[in-house]
Amino acid sequence: MSKLHTKSFKESATAYLFLLPGFILFALFIFGPLLYSLRISFFDWNVIRPERSEWIGWENYVRAFTDPIFRSAIVNTIAYTVITVTGQMTFGTLIAVLLNQDIRGRTFFRVAYYLPVITSWVIVSLLFEYMFSGQGGLVNYLLRDILHITSENIRWLADPILAFVPIDLLGIWKGVGWTAIIVLAGLQAIPEQLYEAAEVDGAGNMARFFKITLPLLRPTLVFLLVVLTIGGMNSYVSNLLLTDGGNPLDKTHFILTYMYERTFKNLEFGFGAAISSMLTVFIFIYSTLQIKLLQKPAEV
Amino acid sequence: MSIKRQKWLSHFLTYLLLILGLAVVAVPFWYMFVTSMKPQSYIFEMPPRLWPEEFTLTNYIEAITRDKFDLYFLNSLFVAVISTVSTVMISSMMAYAFARMNFPGKKALFYVILLGMMIPPVTLLVPQFIIAKNLMLINKFSGLILVYITMNISQQTFLLRGFFEGIPREIEEAALMDGAGRWRIFSQIILPLSKPGLAAVSIFTFLYCWDEFAWAQVMMTDTAKRTLPIGIALFQSQHLTRWGLVFAASIISFIPVVLVFTMFQKHFIKGISTTGLKG
Predict the structure, then answer these.
(1) How far is B11 from chain A (nearest CA, A)?
(2) What architecture (CATH level 2) is domain A30-45+56-281?
């Protein structure tokens, strides 16, 4: 009895040793910062002399919600998220359905569609900036001289609304390959016999897609919805580089570019921490609710 | 006959759409490549050419020799390699404990791992900066590396746990009977059997470190210690119209990614589709 006890004690001790390095890092760089962030969000934080920071209660939060730039940043972020999530899921599903057929060159297409996913955000943002350049970029040339849709060059990035065209297109373009791979995995898990049975019953392509494919794909699509939405809310680099973080006129900010500007340019760490904490709490509640409400995908 | 025609038509449509999509993906990349080969005087040429009048390598030569770009490349490589190796070591140890060992609090601790996967990295930027400052890690490679490891271990532990669970238990049980310790079993039996899983995890981590922008931008202000993404973004803001130069630098920085990806794409895509993790 006691021998068994020491054995299981030894086993536990070994297990904790295996876990120790990782959990030290977690404590130091994730959970510590998370709590610390919550704390300083209630201060007028002085980053150079923290001891001079002043407790101001909820003021950073109140200021955020009365700040028109922050409010427009929320609207921009939500609009971006809705547009890019819809775009990625629509085109991703389409590509996956096409790739799920018995065709040649499947691996080639899969790899090719995946290239934008592995390219760094910095590179693709600069690339889109160049293509959407106001003075004769590739896109303006296409619209004006080839398709004759516009009569003069559009200054995409100088306009607070048009600036979102390249930002949104980039979000979809970069993410579609990943979405397609996930949907493809979901499609391949659907048993072939179901389609065969439907074919015997005389169901057409459309009926099969809507009656079999979509319902069985539901867990995968829910999972994608959650992950892509979180990704959209956390969008940052493309906006920062394409519109120089919120220009023109501070009207194109995302939540995080605004947080970045206030924290690291204006050194308002308390205000930045308040924005961070709100976003973290929101994403937490959102993903928990979403997964609970819309069922959890079996494989994840 | 009509069924055959229908099949032919659906095949034709499939390829048409796939190739159309391919063009949308490929044209920007091709345009980037072509621009990097153009002399400066052709950068804003009208009409913009997708096949340049003359090819030149001057942008590449200038990119490499200018603004410490070679240094940024080496910095990135150093940070990415150290972070990847450490992440794989730390998370495989954690994954092994979760996959095979019994200890009090196992469920709760695993929930902490899942929690770590849910927290968006950029929201940690502000407090991580303050903590790194207190630990004197600002402007040090160790500050980059430690945070990169931390941001990756939960995802990779999750992935590797699934992988280890797929290894038959009998192999270890025999070794346990022979009196081998946990560490020996882990390092001499489990790890060698898990090469595909370790490869997938390594690629995920390497790509993350190679592309990471936000943290590097916030904490590395020392110009000699910058990594590639920061270097390229700054390159562009310093040479506003020198797009050929910027894209030459971008392509050089993209080469290791393409190499790693094409070499391991099978493991990589399998890793993504079975776990649903974002690459």
Answers:
(1) 8
(2) Orthogonal Bundle (1.10)
